[in-house]
Amino acid sequence: MTDKETYDRTLDAPSPASAIAQPAGPLPSEPYYQQPSQPRNAPRARGLGIALVLVGLLLLAFQLFGRGLNVGNVGSIILVDKDYQGNRIELSATASDVEIRPGSGSSIHIEAIQRGGSEGDYQVSVEPSGNSLRVTESGRSFFCFFCSSGLRYRITVPSGAQADIQTASGEIDVEGLSGAVSLASGSGDVRAGDLTGGLKVSTTSGEVNLSDIAGKLDVGSVSGDVKLENGKIDGATVSTTSGEVDLDGVAGALKVTSVSGDIRVREARDGQLDISTASGEIKYEGSLASTGASTLNSFSGDVNLQLPETSDFRLDASTVSGDISSEFELRDGQQGQRNLSGITGNGSTTVTISTTSGDINIDRR
Predict the structure, then answer these.
(1) DSSP three-state, residue 55
(2) Do 140 and 94 form a contact (C-beta atoms < 8 A)?
């Protein structure tokens, strides 16, 4: 075979790539071969999808209506309903709501009610010790998507009793005691009213609503607002990381700190102030202590003071980016757009105000 013949046969032969790319021949005309192809696992995947949708709907229904379901038991179970002698109660609970009211007698009455669940899910222990009662609870461990249960305490105590209440996740409501009261909730609101023996409150994530509180006040909150109405407080310390502070009726030494939130103090008397917030406004309405020093600082926010016309103080105010104004006549000082200093009255107390980004206003009441 000549070289020319070899060359011609090579051109006539199909290449491997073109052979692969050629379309397949038509299928036979029988009905079986004409049906469209389906994935082998389509029925199983469809069934799994339907099951997941049903589970999601059931969980949604439980979130919306499950609080009203009592799986395993219908109604409530009274675990404790008894009188005890004592003048102080200490209660440590998990996910329980606690309500305390003053009673007419000299004993402490404890009522612990289980809502939902089954008998034996919770146990409540009451241990007398001298003039005190210690109440603790425990629950058996079980897992159930659709079980909704919890405890609620209704406690009456002598009006002069002391109370130390702690709950991990539950609301606390206390009224009408003249003894010292301490309340702590990990995740739950705290409400207290008509207390005359001082109050200490701690909450991680919950609102603090107070009214008609007298004595010393100490409140700490990580994430939640703090509000006091009609207070008769003589010395207060309030701190919150993320939340607003609104205090009505405080006197004496006042320390308020907030990382992110406005601070407002109303109807204050003889205040010796240490107030600061990183991001928020400060408003103080009331009189200042006749001696000592007061400091108000906001990194990003205005500072506003409303003081009586007869106030005596030595002022030192400054702002990095903002304006300063005062309705009081100041002497022996300096005034600029970003700073103001001077004395009004006898200057017996010192007021230092600073803000990085905000205005400073000092007005007469």
Answers:
(1) helix
(2) no
| Separation of alpha carbons 167 and 186, rounded Å | 7
Mention every residue, 6+ apart, whose C-beta is less than 8 A from residue 253.
Answer: 235, 236, 272, 274
**Under 8 Å CB-to-CB from 362, ≥6 apart: which residues?**
304, 305, 307, 315, 317, 325, 326, 327, 328, 353
Give me 103's structure tokens: 């009673």
Asked if 115 contacts 151 with a C-beta cutoff of 8 angstroms, the reply is: yes
Rounded-to-integer distance, Cα 115 and Cα 80, Å = 13
Question: Of 160, 165, 153, 171, whose CA–CA distance to 110 is shortest?
Answer: 153
Three-state SS for 31?
Answer: helix
CATH numbers and ranges of domains, the chain: 67-178 (2.160.20.120), 207-365 (no CATH)
Entry pTM: 0.78
More reliable by pLDDT, 24 or 122: 122
> pLDDT tens digits for 30-49?
555 555 555 555 566 677 77
Contact between 322 and 287 under an 8 Å Cβ cutoff? The reply is no
